[in-house]
Design goal:
Layout: E1 5-10, H1 26-29, H2 33-41, E2 43-48, H3 58-65, H4 70-73, H5 78-85, E3 95-106, E4 114-118, H6 126-142, E5 150-155, E6 160-166, H7 198-219, H8 222-229, E7 237-245, H9 252-255, E8 260-263, H10 267-276, E9 279-281, H11 294-305, E10 310-315, H12 317-323, H13 327-342, E11 350-354, E12 358-360, E13 365-367, E14 371-376, E15 400-402, H14 403-414
Parallel strand pairs: 1-10, 1-11, 2-15, 8-9, 8-10
Antiparallel strand pairs: 2-14, 3-4, 3-6, 3-7, 5-6, 11-14, 12-13
Helix pairs in contact: 5-10, 6-7, 12-13
Bound molecules: zinc ion (ZN).
Zinc ion binds near residues 323 and 359.
């Protein structure tokens, strides 16, 4: 290997022209002197996170950039990723869900089930969700959902949690109980098997019993009585989505035996790093919001670079600002990143700047647009691109490539792809 590598993933970086920015994208409007200088001296291009026209989420887009085979990326479910993000101890065969503490009401929803009053029991403190989980877990230990099925709920950040089911005959082929963002009016869904087999039926039954037990126990819990008396939303229900079985995923970087570190604040990306066996570096000031400590992330990354071959830095703020339909904030976040980047001594490190997907600030949603990418390879080729943005990068020397191909180019520039001949065809 000739060079170390530093890859910046600016979450949801790609965007469309915005009225508030006089028809420019946030990346065009941002002050990006350092990035533009890099674009002038090196190569740019456009990257499809998965394939042209395919809209993806962070766990798929970032997963591929972190070395997950594209063919397996779509089967990677959110549940196990979130579970790895909170450092949960998992065994092969465990089924895991992303969970939300919510406010629900019995006997009023679809099928005489539960009505959702608030999909996220907001402003909930860490200690509170931990007490709720502990009470529920002890009740589930004393009186299991079904013979041979162990269940436990684990607190994550704010209103989020992870449900873990463990047992002999479980299946992740069950539907969500969370109806999703705009679907709250449909009430808590009954989990149903997605395939006709005994394991899926048994798992769906266990999940439906869990929903009822959780509501019953949480409704009378002192934490919720106290929350109600303070005028806060009681967290008396648990909504589930993204069921996935735990199988350690394959990874190209691990296969190449590279020492990899991930610097991030966001649990999904830290979860991916954990799943792949990378060093995960985080800090309370890495908030995964637009105010995140970018300077601190860069310091941590340079420090990690001394002991690793390849370091990823994930910045979530750009995506959050776009989801909030705030292109000005997104541009400001990019400008701040550029300012901090200009202070870093990069020497002959191979530097890549990319994104896990595009997020449209006008609609507040991800879309399938390709993202601009930049590859700094001292001594490598250059092209005629002068500015790093969605429009200029179309003319770049890297052309239009997939995220997997972009990662291969980074590895090739590092001189780290030499071992790729040995059976890596599975990663095509
Ligand atoms: Zn997003």
């Amino acid at each position: 290997m000739n060079h170390r590598g530093l890859v910046f993933i600016l979450d949801g970086l790609g965007d469309r022209p915005c009225r508030q920015l006089r028809g420019r994208t946030p990346l065009e409007a941002a002050k990006t002197r350092a990035l533009d200088r890099m674009a002038r001296l090196h190569q740019c291009g456009m990257m499809d996170p998965l394939a042209p026209g395919r809209c993806v989420d962070t766990h798929v887009g970032a997963g591929i950039l972190l070395g997950l085979p594209p063919r397996e990326a779509l089967s990677l479910r959110r549940g196990p990723v979130e579970a790895a993000g909170i450092g949960l101890d998992m065994r092969a065969g465990d089924v895991l869900w992303r969970a939300n503490f919510a406010r629900i009401e019995a006997g009023a929803g679809a099928n005489g089930g539960y009505r959702i009053l608030d999909r996220r029991a907001g402003r909930i403190r860490g200690g509170e969700t931990e007490s709720l989980c502990a009470a529920l877990n002890s009740a589930l230990r004393d009186d299991p959902l079904a013979p041979g099925i162990g269940a436990s709920l684990h607190a994550a950040t704010q209103h989020r949690a992870v449900l873990q089911l463990r047992g002999e005959n479980l299946s992740a082929q069950v539907s969500d109980t969370d109806p999703g963002g705009p679907g709250a009016a449909r009430g808590v869904q009954r989990a149903a098997p997605l395939v006709e087999d005994a394991a899926a039926r048994a798992t769906a039954d266990a999940v439906n019993r869990f929903t009822a037990r959780a509501h019953q126990l949480l409704s009378g819990h002192p934490v919720n009585t106290a929350r109600a008396s303070r005028g806060q939303c009681p967290a008396n229900g648990v909504l589930l989505r993204g069921a996935g079985a735990h199988h350690p995923p394959r990874n190209m970087l691990a296969r190449l035996r590279l020492k990899v570190a991930v610097v991030a604040g966001e649990k999904t990306v830290l979860g991916l790093g954990n799943l792949f066996g990378f060093t995960c570096i985080t800090d309370e000031s890495f908030t995964s919001l637009p105010d995140t400590n970018i300077a601190g992330k860069l310091r941590a990354a340079l420090d990690a670079l001394a002991r690793h071959d390849l370091v990823f830095v994930h910045i979530k703020g750009t995506d959050i600002a776009a989801h909030d339909k705030n292109p000005l904030l997104k541009a400001a976040c990019i400008s701040r990143f550029d300012r901090e980047l200009s202070r870093v001594q990069l020497d002959d490190t191979v530097v890549a700047v990319c994104a896990d997907h595009s997020t449209d600030s006008r609609r507040g949603e991800h879309n399938a647009d390709a993202v601009p990418v930049l590859l700094r390879h001292v001594g490598g080729r250059r092209d005629r691109v002068r500015y790093y943005n969605e429009i200029d990068c179309i003319d770049g020397g890297l052309g239009r490539i997939s995220a997997h191909a972009f990662l291969c180019m980074v590895l090739d520039a590092m001189g780290a792809a030499g071992g790729m001949s040995g059976g890596l065809e599975v990663f095509d």
